[in-house]
Amino acid sequence: MKVSQEQKVEIRRKLLSAAVALFTEKGFSGATMRAVSTRAGFSPGTIYRYFPTKEKIFYAYFEQKQDELEAALNEIEDFNDYTLKEKLQMMMETQLEVYTPDREFVEVTFRALLDSPMKSFTELQPTKGKFTKTVQGYFAQGVERKDIPEQPFENFLVHLFWDYKNLMVMYWLRDETPAFTNTSRLIDLSLDIYVDLLKSGIITKTADTISFLVKSHLYGNIERLYDFVGLITRTAGFMSRSSTEECPHE
After folding, report:
1. Which helix (H) or strand (E) covers residue 216, if one does?
2. For the whole prediction, is pTM greater than 0.85?
């Protein structure tokens, strides 16, 4: 019997839910793919049609949670009226909220992902792409609202925020304070620094200063550079002629 797209989505959701429960109970090495499939109520081989390896389950989980995060943010009625800092802070807090029911699973997966960082870098690109696209949208709105000036290194700063998010998640996984108050406080303080950095224009000024120093140094010494290149060329030519003169003709 042909399975519809809606049924495939539901099967995938059930497999992910079963994987979260089983990996939390037994750990990464203790849970098997066939056991996950059985736990979800399907035949042992069903899971391989959706997730060929355990790691694929991890990556799918984070992509699903990214979708849930964006859906939750879109439901906030006046979200577009928030300042850039408020949007980023709400994004971080909501991210942790969607992870909280599966906190033990997230800890297991983060440990596994850190064990193979290069593979994780590649496999997490779909999730990272969605995340950074959302943050870029917040940057554009921030510029339009004049919360921040245009950022010449926006791409770098957006990807830096992805790394920042992962650091905050790792801190949260070790936070035992009630309602994770230490994590909330750290996010609040660190985002103040991040947004103040954007507002100050210091990154643009630093880039302009470095560019000026490089250009002025290069242009100020251009004649010396030409002289040096000329010297190298003349020396190479002299050595070539000398070599030819010393070699007997056949």
Report:
1. helix 202-220
2. no
